[in-house]
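Researcher: Let's run the pair from yesterday's discussion. Sequence first, then tokens, for each.
Model: Starting with the first of the pair.
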Amino acid sequence: FFFFVQEWIGPFFFIYLGSQLVVDWAAAWVITFSALLAAAIIALFQFVTAAAAGRRTAGLDRADAVLLGFGMWPRDVLAFVVLGIAATGGLVATDDRFVTVVVITVLLLNIAASLALRFYKPYYHKLKKI
């Protein structure tokens, strides 16, 4: 049942949420800058806190802690769920710039995580001697 919900019903939620997004093209530069700034700040703090927590609580070595830090970047997908609930409940207007910035920020973090993990992989294998 969980597989069915995750693989078949889950994507429809994200398609629905994306279709409700109204972009203010007149403010595209402000929205883009805000999303880039938010993504950079979130990425920095997620990386540092996840890597530090991995080293201190799980005793990970530096290579594994860095891998954990990069791996935490795409975990903001939960923001889509919260944003969808807030928009459905009328707490946030879907034509608000905030919603657009959050969506772009999450998208940027997901792309950045894939790239970071791809480029870190050779260094990780070298450090772990795999």
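Model: Moving on to the second of the pair.
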Amino acid sequence: LCKYLMVASGRASVFILRARAQTVIK
């Protein structure tokens, strides 16, 4: 369960970073 939460949080953080990068580029 812990590993799953860590992976989920990691993917979420990466998704947020990508979204921010796209907004900055645009």
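Researcher: Give me one sentence on the second I can quote.
Model: The helical segments are 2-25.
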